[in-house]
């Protein structure tokens, strides 16, 4: 077994400097059960020399006990860390791994293939830029393959690498590869993907994962890693308007008052005119303060404190936005929900909705439709069961600032929280405001919402942990 170089070999400082300025690409692996998602990630980690010596030793030991590759090292065990996953040989929870090359750094989410863990897959996809959808060359497209492709589309991922795995088990047949690609393209045609790049590979052997595979001379395109290094994601996205959900008011003394938070989208510079929602008060940015000193401009993904020229009343949950492109203020929302609770959701249900950095009371005004996760077709319904995807109207107890999810994935997403258990009940994507604020409706019963941990919640928790 090759001994892999670790950061200690040349110093942590040099290691961090070499990687801190790189662009970060987030991607997920998804698909049906046993398509080889965990093995693929293990292969990426192994062949890019991201495994330390002690991990190699532990992997050899664990492969003898839990491995599914006979006497060979089982790379899937690098990702499947839960005891239940190792015992059953499946992925249950979302596993995140970090690796880096000379061109980019990557955060990869290995998502489960079983239908009952669809909600976990949606969690992993919620922050991803690219989806790697795996297909077992022997099985072809399955029900879960189509299900995951639809979910990826609904969650706003526009680029897909169709990784047709286990090609070594079908003799690297070009006819079989072309057949699967044609079937997927026909299914995905209405999903409006920007790109679907099909790659034949063997995660077990490593062909066309990091290095080109000699077994398929008919394939002349790049291996998977090269695609991930070069895929132009950020540069093609429409520039989103500036949004900073206020995390807390920074007031160390009477001479300083600033609004701290993570920039969700866009950029800001001193002199820019901004408006605080929902109050509607406007001011000008005087300083962009950070622990490392003031910045001339701050961008999406940076945590900063904005100091304004005017004394404006704002607190946690407010959204500071560019003055000429404001978010929508509303107390009623049309939302597409990924329902995760075991109990059914019906009209009248009362929950907490966590939107950005604030928690509000929400009542389900109506359940309109359920989306078939295999076909994408909508059917009328009045309830949602666990793992269902559906469209509902939420009535809130106050106005909030939001954007449609297709315009801004941060200010257009929310989670619903069960009031009794405080468990996450659903992930929601804002479609539009359901009615002008002030429309007559039954009042929403209020309940004291717990103060969430800073940056808490499904989407924000993931982004806090992995730097988004």
TrEMBL record:
PROSITE patterns in alphabetical order: G_TR_1 (PS00301), G_TR_2 (PS51722)
Oligomeric form and interacting partners: Sulfate-activating enzymes, NodP and NodQ, may be physically associated.
Gene name tied to this protein: cysN
GO molecular function: adenylylsulfate kinase activity; ATP binding; GTP binding; GTPase activity; sulfate adenylyltransferase (ATP) activity
Pathway(s) the chain acts in: Sulfur metabolism; hydrogen sulfide biosynthesis; sulfite from sulfate: step 1/3
Species in which this protein is naturally found: Methylorubrum salsuginis
Origin superkingdom: Bacteria
Documented EC number(s): 2.7.7.4
Cited function: Proposed to provide activated sulfate for transfer to Nod factor. ATP sulfurylase may be the GTPase, regulating ATP sulfurylase activity. APS kinase catalyzes the synthesis of activated sulfate.
Enzyme class: transferase
Keywords for the protein's UniProt record, in alphabetical order: ATP-binding, GTP-binding, Nucleotide-binding, Nucleotidyltransferase, Transferase
Annotated Tr-type G domain residues: 22-237
Protein name stated in the entry: Sulfate adenylyltransferase subunit 1
Catalytic function, reaction form: sulfate + ATP + H(+) = adenosine 5'-phosphosulfate + diphosphate; adenosine 5'-phosphosulfate + ATP = 3'-phosphoadenylyl sulfate + ADP + H(+)
Family per record: Belongs to the TRAFAC class translation factor GTPase superfamily. Classic translation factor GTPase family. CysN/NodQ subfamily.
GO BP term, example: sulfate assimilation
